[in-house]
Design a protein that fits this description.
The chain has 130 residues and is mainly α. The protein has a domain at 3-92: lambda repressor-like DNA-binding domains (434 Repressor (Amino-terminal Domain), Orthogonal Bundle). Helix content is 62%, strand content 0%. The chain has helices spanning 3-7, 18-33, 38-45, 49-57, 64-74, 95-109, 113-129. The longest helix has 17 residues, at 113-129. It starts with a helix and ends with a helix.
């Protein structure tokens, strides 16, 4: 038993916490923005689908080395996963955030560049109406 465990018996040992859930949510958000499935993500970082799922849910903690690897695969600095941690303790996505993530995922799935540009122009036009 470590000194911390003996002085704070109420604190679970090696259990995920709010920070782990926040980091997992940021991984999921970035993965979806890139249009990757959980299976694709798992393959890219060399873990099982179940493990990738547990990382995203904040159920399993992520080692520093694994987090670095995930950051490399997702094309972001490690600090990206901690952004907003101080301001936002809840990692639950709102309906609007989910819709935005789905939109980004679907947009990245469009292979025709002309279609992407047309959709982008339409979004700009609709946004200008407000």
């Amino acid at each position: 038993m470590t000194a911390e465990q003996s002085t704070n018996p109420a604190r679970p040992v090696n259990r995920a916490n709010d920070t782990d859930r926040h980091v997992g949510a940021r991984i999921r958000e970035r993965r979806i923005m890139l249009g990757l499935s959980q299976q694709q993500m798992a393959d890219l970082i060399g873990v099982t689908y179940q493990q990738a799922h547990k990382y995203e849910r904040g159920i399993n903690r992520i080692s520093a080395g694994r987090l670095y690897e995930i950051a490399q695969v997702l094309g972001v600095p490690v600090s990206y996963f901690f952004e907003g941690l101080d301001n936002q303790r809840s990692t639950d996505l709102t309906a609007r955030q989910r819709m935005c993530l789905e939109l980004a995922r679907n947009f990245s799935s469009i292979t025709n560049e002309k279609h992407q540009e047309a959709l982008s122009q339409m979004a700009r036009a609709l946004a200008a109406e407000d």
